[in-house]
Amino acid sequence: GQQLNQSPQSMFIQEGEDVSMNCTSSSIFNTWLWYKQDPGEGPVLLIALYKAGELTSNGRLTAQFGTTRKDSFLNISASIPSDVGIYFCAGLLSGNTPLVFGKGTRLSVIA
Amino acid sequence: SQTIHQWPATLVQPVGSPLSLECTVEGTSNPNLYWYRQAAGRGLQLLFYSVGIGQISSEVPQNLSASRPQDRQFILSSKKLLLSDSGFYLCAWSNTGGNTIYFGEGSWLTVV
Questions:
Q1: pLDDT digits (tens, 9 = 90+) for B18-64
Q2: B29 at the A interface (CB within 8 A)?
Q3: By CB count within 10 A, which of B52, B73, B102, B111 is most buried?
Q4: Cβ of A88 and B32 within 8 Å?
Q5: Could you tell me if A5 and B43 are in contact, meaning their C-beta atoms sit under 8 angstroms apart?
Q6: Is B22 helix (H, G, I), strand (E, B) or coil?
Q7: What tens digit of pLDDT does each residue of A49-101 get?
């Protein structure tokens, strides 16, 4: 089955630093989604990407849909303590196929 | 606007007891519905998904079952819980043919 490799698994950064994480796949996707999960809560959608090469921002977050359709990255600029959580990438081939999730990147921000 | 709600939020159940988790979606029609499980500190595992009433696809053989008795209602059940069923269960929805999935608040299940 399809698999997503998400890296890094975890990150410890100083407040104010920029963060970058990425996902790669052995097969193509037509949609890439990035979620953030706070402890004990459901994942919340951060950014959705629907077109190869698309670059989309949401506040301090920027994500890109790779031109090969097999990868995506998420950048967080000027991190703050509330950025702490687990970030998941997810790929979707079509509307009636299940999402494929990465294993998550656990972000810790040191004030 | 669309909302998704699942309950109960937490429950502690003895081994061998039954389980019923319920999820409802408001503000949309004929959504795709999903049940995911997340073990502590782990990724998301798709358990079941449904594209319509009475249509259930199972992704992983297990001790659980799902039902969709109404268009916007999705139920996760078990007749006899195992210790390994403990985890964080998430319901999710997307529009038919949609390419964005939204999650509920999650339900913590501890089997003792």
A1: 999 999 999 999 999 999 999 776 789 899 999 999 999 988 767 89
A2: no
A3: B102
A4: no
A5: no
A6: strand
A7: 999 999 999 999 999 999 999 999 999 999 999 999 999 999 988 766 778 89
